[in-house]
């Protein structure tokens, strides 16, 4: 993270960032400098910032054209840092304590998800592009793994428990989970392993292991080759798992467990988003009933 010119703030920020894994550090490291630069431009010591300063900064972030979700993410990063600083008595007061978190209108967010036919085309195309493309297609689109989870898989992650093929995944918050590999996905996973006993499960054409950005590029390339014109990333595959599961009548508890969500609200709020949710809306039945009486 670039220096803010305030040594005490930089030391605090570096300590706070060190508590997260590298991928999260990279994300948060883009938010904090925007706050420290805003303070520097106004000659405000971030360690002496007030509630009004945070609220004015959030307004500036919102006015820059970023989405509500991005503004909320900026707030979350800064608020988390100040919460730690206050708990450790490094600041006299927490300027974020009474700041209202920016609200996210999840129903109006643009969150890409593949239809069943689009995923079928994606999967068919992935088979022709190579074992890593194919494995990513099933890991994301059938098993709901995140990009980072796919990238950190190794050959020893694959095993068998009570006759079921499984993958041991390192999920959010560094929480390990054992995920069953469905039979339709098993061949792709075994082809990616290719008889090896060690090394990364997913490899590039050069044989190197992947990071989450590489997984994203492979997903985007597969989508383009499949004729899907809008931008598609790994999380669109994960959303497809959740949305298809809910639409097929799989109990919410089971879909939540598949996606490894802590709360069912997350599963419903972010993953039940296809057009079928509009088609099944109760207003259609109510309107039809009432219109019948009026007609």
Describe this structure in words.
It is a single chain. With 295 residues, the protein is mainly α. 57% of the residues lie in helices and 5% in strands. The protein has 14 helices and 3 strands. It has a 3-stranded antiparallel β-sheet with strand order 1-2-3, with no helix packed on it. A hairpin with a 5-residue loop joins strand 2 and strand 3 (176-180). Helix 2 packs across helix 4 (68-87), helix 6 (131-141) crosses helix 9 (212-225) and helix 10 runs antiparallel to helix 11 (252-259). The model has no long low-confidence stretch (mean pLDDT 88).
Produce a short descriptive summary.
By secondary structure, the protein is mostly helical. The chain has 14 helices and 3 strands. Helix 6 runs antiparallel to helix 8.
């Amino acid at each position: 993270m670039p220096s803010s010119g305030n040594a005490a703030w930089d030391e605090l920020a570096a300590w706070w960032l060190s508590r997260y894994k590298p991928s999260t550090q990279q994300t948060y490291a883009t938010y904090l400098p925007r706050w420290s630069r805003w303070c520097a431009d106004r000659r405000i010591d971030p360690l002496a910032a007030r509630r009004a300063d945070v609220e004015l900064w959030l307004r500036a972030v919102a006015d820059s054209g970023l989405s509500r979700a991005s503004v909320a993410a900026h707030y979350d990063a800064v608020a988390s840092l100040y919460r730690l600083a206050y708990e450790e008595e490094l600041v006299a007061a927490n300027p974020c304590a009474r700041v209202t978190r920016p609200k996210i209108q999840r129903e109006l967010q643009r969150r890409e998800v593949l239809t069943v036919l689009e995923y079928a085309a994606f999967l068919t195309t992935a088979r022709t592009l190579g074992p890593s493309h194919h494995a990513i297609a099933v890991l994301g689109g059938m098993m709901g793994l995140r990009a980072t989870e796919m990238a950190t898989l190794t050959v020893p992650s694959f095993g068998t428990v009570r006759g079921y093929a499984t993958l041991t995944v390192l999920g959010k918050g560094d929480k390990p989970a054992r995920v069953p590999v469905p039979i339709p996905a098993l061949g792709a996973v075994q082809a990616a392993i290719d008889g090896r006993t060690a090394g990364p499960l997913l490899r590039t054409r050069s044989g190197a292991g992947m990071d989450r950005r590489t997984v994203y590029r492979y997903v985007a390339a597969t989508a383009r080759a499949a004729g899907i014109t809008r931008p598609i990333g790994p999380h669109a595959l994960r959303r497809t798992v959740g949305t298809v599961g809910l639409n097929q009548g799989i109990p919410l508890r089971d879909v939540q467990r598949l996606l490894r969500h802590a709360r069912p609200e997350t599963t419903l709020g972010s993953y039940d988003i296809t057009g079928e949710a509009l088609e099944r809306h109760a207003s259609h039945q109510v309107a039809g009933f009432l219109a019948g009486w009026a007609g």
